[in-house]
């Protein structure tokens, strides 16, 4: 599973850093090797300079994609919940 977090100016100002921190925490601590809840095996996290969604639309930042699903106005909690659901053992 691939998670891409836009780190363009608007997305960073709207909280992309906290989303990245939450995903990394989830990957290392919540879904780590000893977890009985979920497994982060195969989880790839990528940072994008800009995904260009903000250029076409107003008020969509921060933007995150999980595989082919685009999530606008993403929050750390929303992304964490989606990932735990998808990574659940």
What features would you highlight for this structure?
89 residues, alpha+beta, Glutaredoxin, four-stranded mixed sheet, 18% strand, elongated, Thioredoxin-like_sf, Thioredoxin-like [2Fe-2S] ferredoxin
Layout of secondary structure:
Layout: E1 2-6, H1 9-13, H2 16-30, E2 44-48, H3 53-56, E3 64-66, E4 69-71, H4 76-87
Parallel strand pairs: 1-2
Antiparallel strand pairs: 1-3, 3-4
Helix pairs in contact: 2-4
Name of the CATH class: Alpha Beta
Q: Give me the CATH fold name.
A: Glutaredoxin
Q: Biggest sheet, in brief?
A: 4 strands, mixed
CATH homology group? Glutaredoxin
Counted up, domains total 1
The CATH architecture classification is: 3-Layer(aba) Sandwich
Low-confidence stretches: none
**Strands, total number:** 4
Mean pLDDT: 94
Instruction: Determine the strand fraction and express it as a percent band.
Output: 15-25%
How far from one another are the termini? Answer: 14 Å
Strand pairing plus helix content: what structural class? alpha+beta
Neighbour order of strands in the largest sheet = 2-1-3-4
């Amino acid at each position: 599973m691939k998670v891409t977090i836009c780190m363009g100016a608007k997305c960073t100002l709207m909280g992309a850093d906290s989303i990245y921190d939450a995903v990394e925490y989830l990957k290392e601590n919540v879904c780590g090797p000893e977890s009985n809840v979920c497994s982060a095996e195969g989880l790839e996290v990528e940072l994008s300079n800009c995904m260009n969604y903000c250029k076409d639309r107003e008020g969509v930042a921060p933007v995150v994609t999980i595989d082919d699903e685009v999530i606008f106005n993403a929050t750390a909690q929303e992304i964490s919940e989606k990932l735990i659901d998808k990574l659940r053992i």
